[in-house]
Write a structure and sequence with these properties.
This is VOC family protein. It holds the Pfam family Glyoxalase. One of its GO terms (molecular function) is metal ion binding. Keywords: Metal-binding. A hairpin with a 4-residue loop joins β3 and β4. The protein has helices at about 5-10, 20-30, 30-35, 50-60, 90-100, 120-125, and strands at about 40-45, 65, 75, 80-85, 110-115, 130-140, 145-150, 155-160. It has a four-stranded mixed beta sheet, with helices on one face. A four-stranded mixed beta sheet has the order 5-8-7-6. It has three domains: about 1-35, no CATH class; about 40-100, 2,3-Dihydroxybiphenyl 1,2-Dioxygenase, domain 1 (Roll); about 105-163, 2,3-Dihydroxybiphenyl 1,2-Dioxygenase, domain 1 (Roll). It is globular. Mean pLDDT is about 75; it is low at about 1-15, about 20-30 and about 90-95. The protein is an alpha/beta fold. It is built from six helices and eight strands, in the order αααβαβββαβαβββ.
Length: about 160
C-alpha cells in the first residue's frame, strides 16, 4: 500500500482533525509522501480582479489561457504551474480560512517569477510605469538577484535570477 494512503487512513480513524503540526510531522517522515506533492497552480484572491487581470496581461505580459477582463476567473500560461485570479471566496472555504490563526505580518504570499535578467525586466516594467518596492539587488545568501513590486491587489511579486 502507498505510504501516503496509509497516512490518510491513519488520520481518518481519529475523531478530531489533526493539527497542521501533526500532519506535517508525519508527512516529512515519509519519503513517498513528498514525491506526491507537486504544485499545480497558484490562485490569487483579488477583490479588484479586473484591474489585476489587466496588470498581469498588459503590464507583466502573461499569456491568457482562460478568461478576459470581464470574467470572474482568469488563468494565465506560466509554464508547468498554472496561475489564476479570482475574487475572494464568500462561502465555506473562506469560513474555514477565517477560523485559522493569521500570520502576524502583512504579506502572506509572494508570487515569484524566474527571469533571465532581472535588470532588463525591471527597466521594461519601469518604463510602463510600474512602481517597485525594491529595485534589483543581489541576495548572495540565497544565490539570487531579485527585485520586488506589487500587483494592483497588493500581492508581492518577486522577480529573480540566479547569480
Amino acid at each position: 500500500m502507498n505510504d501516503a494512503i496509509s497516512i490518510g487512513f491513519e488520520f481518518s480513524n481519529r475523531k478530531e482533525t489533526p493539527s497542521f503540526s501533526q500532519w506535517y510531522t508525519v508527512s516529512i517522515r515519509n519519503e513517498g509522501w513528498r514525491s506526491l506533492l507537486k504544485l499545480s497552480h497558484v490562485r490569487l484572491l483579488a477583490p479588484n480582479i479586473h484591474e489585476c487581470f489587466l496588470f498581469y496581461r498588459d503590464i507583466i505580459g502573461l499569456e491568457v489561457r482562460y478568461g478576459d477582463e470581464t470574467t470572474p476567473f482568469a488563468e494565465f500560461a506560466t509554464g508547468d504551474v498554472s496561475f489564476a485570479l479570482e475574487p475572494p471566496m464568500a462561502d465555506a472555504p473562506a469560513e474555514a480560512l477565517a477560523r485559522t490563526k493569521p500570520f502576524s505580518g502583512r504579506d502572506q504570499v509572494a508570487l515569484v517569477f524566474r527571469v533571465e535578467n532581472v535588470d532588463d525586466v525591471y527597466e521594461a516594467l519601469r518604463t510602463k510605469g510600474v512602481p517597485f518596492v525594491r529595485p534589483p539587488h543581489d541576495t548572495p545568501e540565497w544565490g539570487h538577484r531579485v527585485a520586488y513590486l506589487r500587483d494592483p491587489a497588493g500581492h508581492v511579486i518577486e522577480l529573480n535570477q540566479g547569480i
